[in-house]
Write a structure and sequence with these properties.
This protein is flat. By secondary structure, it is an alpha+beta fold. It has helices spanning 13-27, 44-51, 102-108, 112-116, 189-199, and strands at 69-70, 73-74, 79-81, 87-89, 120-125, 140-144, 158-161, 166-168.
Length: 201
Protein backbone atom coordinates (compact mmCIF):
# COMPACT_ATOMS: atom_id res chain seq x y z
CA UNK A 1 0.00 0.00 0.00
CA UNK A 2 1.52 3.36 -1.00
CA UNK A 3 1.85 5.80 1.89
CA UNK A 4 1.76 9.59 1.47
CA UNK A 5 4.20 11.57 3.64
CA UNK A 6 2.27 13.32 6.38
CA UNK A 7 3.05 15.25 9.55
CA UNK A 8 2.73 13.43 12.91
CA UNK A 9 0.85 15.60 15.39
CA UNK A 10 2.00 15.65 19.00
CA UNK A 11 -1.57 14.80 19.96
CA UNK A 12 -1.53 11.50 18.05
CA UNK A 13 2.03 10.53 18.99
CA UNK A 14 0.70 8.29 21.76
CA UNK A 15 -1.31 6.31 19.23
CA UNK A 16 1.83 5.77 17.16
CA UNK A 17 3.79 4.52 20.17
CA UNK A 18 0.94 2.21 21.21
CA UNK A 19 0.84 0.68 17.74
CA UNK A 20 4.62 0.34 17.65
CA UNK A 21 4.83 -1.36 21.07
CA UNK A 22 2.01 -3.73 20.16
CA UNK A 23 3.81 -4.72 16.96
CA UNK A 24 7.14 -5.24 18.73
CA UNK A 25 5.51 -7.36 21.44
CA UNK A 26 4.06 -9.60 18.73
CA UNK A 27 7.53 -10.17 17.22
CA UNK A 28 9.83 -10.44 20.25
CA UNK A 29 9.86 -11.86 23.76
CA UNK A 30 10.96 -9.99 26.87
CA UNK A 31 14.37 -10.69 28.39
CA UNK A 32 14.25 -12.87 31.50
CA UNK A 33 16.59 -12.39 34.44
CA UNK A 34 19.32 -15.02 34.62
CA UNK A 35 18.90 -16.17 31.02
CA UNK A 36 21.18 -15.39 28.07
CA UNK A 37 21.28 -16.21 24.37
CA UNK A 38 19.73 -19.44 23.22
CA UNK A 39 22.95 -20.50 21.41
CA UNK A 40 26.20 -21.00 23.39
CA UNK A 41 29.22 -21.21 21.07
CA UNK A 42 31.82 -21.08 23.84
CA UNK A 43 33.30 -24.59 23.75
CA UNK A 44 34.99 -26.61 26.46
CA UNK A 45 38.20 -26.63 24.38
CA UNK A 46 38.29 -22.84 24.28
CA UNK A 47 37.70 -22.65 28.03
CA UNK A 48 40.57 -25.07 28.65
CA UNK A 49 42.86 -23.07 26.37
CA UNK A 50 42.12 -19.86 28.21
CA UNK A 51 42.64 -21.49 31.56
CA UNK A 52 46.09 -22.64 30.41
CA UNK A 53 47.42 -19.10 29.90
CA UNK A 54 49.91 -18.36 32.66
CA UNK A 55 49.45 -15.31 34.86
CA UNK A 56 51.40 -12.34 33.53
CA UNK A 57 52.10 -14.03 30.19
CA UNK A 58 51.66 -10.72 28.35
CA UNK A 59 53.66 -8.65 30.85
CA UNK A 60 56.39 -7.58 28.39
CA UNK A 61 59.41 -5.69 29.68
CA UNK A 62 61.50 -3.58 27.29
CA UNK A 63 65.20 -4.49 27.19
CA UNK A 64 67.76 -2.25 28.90
CA UNK A 65 69.13 0.51 26.65
CA UNK A 66 72.53 0.18 25.04
CA UNK A 67 74.59 2.21 22.59
CA UNK A 68 72.84 0.53 19.64
CA UNK A 69 69.45 -0.38 21.04
CA UNK A 70 66.93 1.33 23.31
CA UNK A 71 63.64 -0.20 24.31
CA UNK A 72 63.70 -2.60 21.40
CA UNK A 73 64.03 0.27 18.89
CA UNK A 74 67.17 0.43 16.76
CA UNK A 75 68.95 3.67 15.92
CA UNK A 76 68.57 4.86 12.35
CA UNK A 77 70.55 7.32 10.23
CA UNK A 78 71.74 10.60 11.76
CA UNK A 79 70.95 9.35 15.27
CA UNK A 80 73.30 8.28 18.07
CA UNK A 81 72.53 6.48 21.34
CA UNK A 82 74.82 6.80 24.37
CA UNK A 83 75.57 4.01 26.85
CA UNK A 84 72.72 5.17 29.10
CA UNK A 85 70.25 5.18 26.21
CA UNK A 86 70.23 8.91 25.49
CA UNK A 87 69.22 9.58 21.87
CA UNK A 88 70.90 12.45 20.03
CA UNK A 89 70.38 13.71 16.49
CA UNK A 90 73.39 14.35 14.28
CA UNK A 91 73.28 17.83 12.79
CA UNK A 92 73.06 17.80 9.03
CA UNK A 93 71.80 19.75 6.06
CA UNK A 94 68.02 20.20 6.00
CA UNK A 95 66.37 19.80 2.60
CA UNK A 96 63.94 22.69 2.10
CA UNK A 97 63.42 22.17 -1.63
CA UNK A 98 59.80 21.15 -1.05
CA UNK A 99 58.94 24.42 0.68
CA UNK A 100 58.05 27.73 -0.98
CA UNK A 101 60.23 30.80 -0.55
CA UNK A 102 58.72 34.03 0.74
CA UNK A 103 59.35 35.69 -2.64
CA UNK A 104 57.37 32.93 -4.38
CA UNK A 105 54.50 33.30 -1.92
CA UNK A 106 54.25 37.04 -2.61
CA UNK A 107 53.85 36.34 -6.34
CA UNK A 108 51.52 33.35 -6.04
CA UNK A 109 49.24 33.84 -3.04
CA UNK A 110 47.07 36.72 -1.85
CA UNK A 111 48.13 38.48 1.33
CA UNK A 112 45.77 39.08 4.23
CA UNK A 113 45.74 42.77 3.32
CA UNK A 114 44.59 41.91 -0.20
CA UNK A 115 41.72 39.75 1.05
CA UNK A 116 40.43 42.23 3.63
CA UNK A 117 40.08 44.93 0.99
CA UNK A 118 37.81 42.94 -1.35
CA UNK A 119 34.64 44.34 0.30
CA UNK A 120 34.64 47.36 2.61
CA UNK A 121 31.44 48.39 4.36
CA UNK A 122 30.94 52.16 4.11
CA UNK A 123 27.57 52.59 5.86
CA UNK A 124 23.90 53.12 4.95
CA UNK A 125 22.02 55.50 2.70
CA UNK A 126 18.29 56.14 2.84
CA UNK A 127 17.72 55.86 -0.93
CA UNK A 128 19.53 54.55 -3.98
CA UNK A 129 19.87 58.12 -5.27
CA UNK A 130 21.97 59.01 -2.20
CA UNK A 131 24.78 56.60 -3.12
CA UNK A 132 28.03 58.54 -3.60
CA UNK A 133 28.93 59.75 -7.06
CA UNK A 134 32.55 60.73 -6.35
CA UNK A 135 35.28 59.23 -4.16
CA UNK A 136 34.02 55.65 -4.36
CA UNK A 137 36.40 52.71 -4.75
CA UNK A 138 36.00 49.15 -5.98
CA UNK A 139 34.69 47.05 -3.10
CA UNK A 140 32.83 49.87 -1.31
CA UNK A 141 29.57 48.47 0.11
CA UNK A 142 26.49 50.44 1.15
CA UNK A 143 23.16 49.42 2.67
CA UNK A 144 20.14 50.96 0.93
CA UNK A 145 17.31 51.45 3.43
CA UNK A 146 14.38 52.17 1.08
CA UNK A 147 13.26 50.03 -1.85
CA UNK A 148 13.81 51.31 -5.40
CA UNK A 149 11.98 49.22 -8.01
CA UNK A 150 13.48 51.16 -10.93
CA UNK A 151 16.96 50.01 -9.91
CA UNK A 152 15.94 46.53 -8.71
CA UNK A 153 16.54 47.40 -5.06
CA UNK A 154 14.54 45.91 -2.20
CA UNK A 155 14.50 47.57 1.21
CA UNK A 156 17.69 46.68 3.05
CA UNK A 157 19.66 45.49 0.00
CA UNK A 158 23.44 45.90 0.00
CA UNK A 159 25.20 47.19 -3.10
CA UNK A 160 28.90 47.20 -4.01
CA UNK A 161 30.80 49.44 -6.44
CA UNK A 162 32.37 47.20 -9.11
CA UNK A 163 34.30 49.94 -10.87
CA UNK A 164 31.55 50.78 -13.34
CA UNK A 165 28.24 50.64 -11.48
CA UNK A 166 26.56 49.72 -8.20
CA UNK A 167 26.07 45.94 -8.14
CA UNK A 168 23.28 44.51 -5.99
CA UNK A 169 24.66 41.81 -3.67
CA UNK A 170 21.17 40.46 -2.93
CA UNK A 171 19.25 37.96 -4.99
CA UNK A 172 15.72 36.64 -5.38
CA UNK A 173 14.98 33.13 -4.10
CA UNK A 174 11.99 31.53 -5.80
CA UNK A 175 10.18 29.27 -3.33
CA UNK A 176 7.03 28.82 -5.40
CA UNK A 177 7.85 25.14 -6.04
CA UNK A 178 7.88 24.35 -2.31
CA UNK A 179 4.86 23.44 -0.19
CA UNK A 180 4.06 25.53 2.85
CA UNK A 181 3.98 23.64 6.15
CA UNK A 182 0.34 24.63 6.71
CA UNK A 183 -0.59 22.96 3.40
CA UNK A 184 1.09 19.64 4.29
CA UNK A 185 -1.47 16.87 5.06
CA UNK A 186 -1.60 15.55 8.61
CA UNK A 187 -1.61 11.83 9.40
CA UNK A 188 -4.52 10.38 11.35
CA UNK A 189 -4.21 7.85 14.19
CA UNK A 190 -5.53 5.07 11.94
CA UNK A 191 -2.99 5.89 9.23
CA UNK A 192 -0.12 5.85 11.74
CA UNK A 193 -1.20 2.47 13.07
CA UNK A 194 -1.43 1.10 9.54
CA UNK A 195 2.10 2.38 8.72
CA UNK A 196 3.56 0.74 11.84
CA UNK A 197 1.89 -2.60 11.12
CA UNK A 198 2.96 -2.47 7.48
CA UNK A 199 6.65 -1.47 7.90
CA UNK A 200 7.63 -3.60 10.92
CA UNK A 201 7.93 -7.21 9.78
Amino acid sequence: MATTDKILRKSNFAAAMTALIAKLNSLFVRKETGKGLSTNDYTAAEKAKLAGVAAGANNYVLPAPTASTIGGVKAGNNVTISEDGTISAIQGQLDLSLYAKSADIDRTYAKKADITTVYKYRGSVNTYAELPVNGKAVGDVYNVVAADASNGIKAGDNVVWNGNAWDNLSGVVDLSAYMKINDFPLATDDEITAIVNETII
